[in-house]
Amino acid sequence: MKSLFAAGVLALGWWAFDLASGDPRSPRMEHSPQWRDGRFRNPQPMWNDTWGALMAIRKRDPNSRPTGPVPAVQPTRAGLEAPPASGLRATWLGHSTVYLEVDGVRILTDPMWSDRASPVSWAGPRRFYAPLISLEDLPRPQVVAISHNHYDHLDEGTLSRMKDWDARFIVPLGVGARLVRWGIPVARITELDWWQSFRVGEVDVVSTPSRHASGRGLLDKDRTLWTSYAFVGPRHRVYFSGDTGMFPGFREIGARLGPFDLTMIESGAYNRAWPDWHLGPEQAVEAHGMLRGRTLLPIHWGLFDLAAHAWTEPVERVLIAAKAAGATVVVPRPGQSVEPEAPPSFQRWWPDLPWHTAAEAPIRATSNGQPLAVQGSAP
Fold this sequence. Notes:
By secondary structure, the chain is an alpha/beta fold. About 20% of the residues lie in helices and about 20% in strands. The chain is globular, with a radius of gyration of 19 Å.
């Protein structure tokens, strides 16, 4: 649904091309099991209620954006440079941007420092708060991991400022070409298909399946792949969802690469009109169980107004679902670092606002419009 906004603002329609030759379709893309009939496909097709989506825009919750400052924390370079005592630490910088430290390897997911998630600077979803640490002060990660090419996950204003970083940029098939246009050297870019991996230090970065879409304009829908990631170290394992709807593959990821010490799973920007694009809170907790996760960090909420629900609704519903499932959840303030092995005491830092319960506004994935039969497992 987010790509619909981008298309309405500006029809970019850029095609992915091979990093070396500039060929309109990379041979690696065409040989991917996910590539069929000229584009990437989900194993479970996604369903949309276009009329319902339009109505949702008209019925946007009055609390879809904060009315006052969000009580964030400003991390320091010194604090991020100090190694975590446990070997695993996550600093949520808002939305899907996490500064992650896994067994000596620093990883930055879906970096977003721009003011808007948009192809233009004068329109589109605007941040609720300014970046919590400057890119210049951020300790350089060894890995920058991108999940897909939607504007709130692949940001030109941010990535172009990283062109001189000595980092490994790991992206799904087809996305690397755009990074090259933004000045990042080909030699620092690694494109992965699902279940392929790349080792950095002692950590394997594994591209794992997800159920989503790609596109930045009218002409490039699903021309590049989308992915989630598993970061597998000698002592710790972390899962990062990117954007995804519910699908049976969570169980396979958990069986092959879990259990995960930490799962970072998208929990916001959902609506019944697009139930297969995003998990929503209850299915995020369900996915956490299927992944054999130990601690859940909800992400993809609290920075941009991308749906009609109240901005605090995702975390309220995650906490209720987690309690029912017996799952452990950490909800740090934006910018606060957490170590799952020694989590901070729970503090409710967001305001108490009206929101809709799971019974009032259920989000359940479909298969071509029919209920998707996916039974979760306990964490």
